[in-house]
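EI: anyone free to look at a 144-residue chain?
SC: sure, send it
EI:
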Amino acid sequence: MVNQQNGQSSTMPVMIDKVAWILIQDGKVLSARSKGKDLYYFPGGKREPGESDTETLVREIEEELTVRIKPDTVRPFGIFEAEADGKAAGVRVRMVGYTADYEGQLTPAAEIEELAWLGENDRNQLSAVSQLVFDVVYGTCRKA
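SC: here you go
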């Protein structure tokens, strides 16, 4: 499991804690773009009270992409932290990434407007925290 952080703050920042699905196929990573947003991110979301990470992943991915995650295939990928895009200064996002197999056909739903398979040269199209995942996937870790 990888732990990547982009920048540090001397004060206690507001933290958005989310779970994300990292799906890599044919050298590209599945990314989602929400309605009204410019940047892509990895599908997933926030935990409901009492939910495990796997339960959150299954629920969020079914809501956003209309596919079913196979819970017994969920594996940790890494923990990533960066400034949250589109939020007030100092707000950070902590994303716990998981890989998993799925059943069904990927289809954008709920707040998702578009799905895209992004490759190594598409890093600039991603949110800050998603860029950290790209750096691990493509072996291009950058120093802050």
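EI: Strands lie at 2-5, 15-21, 24-25, 28-34, 44-45, 68-69, 75-83, 92-99, 102-103, 112-118.
SC: 👍
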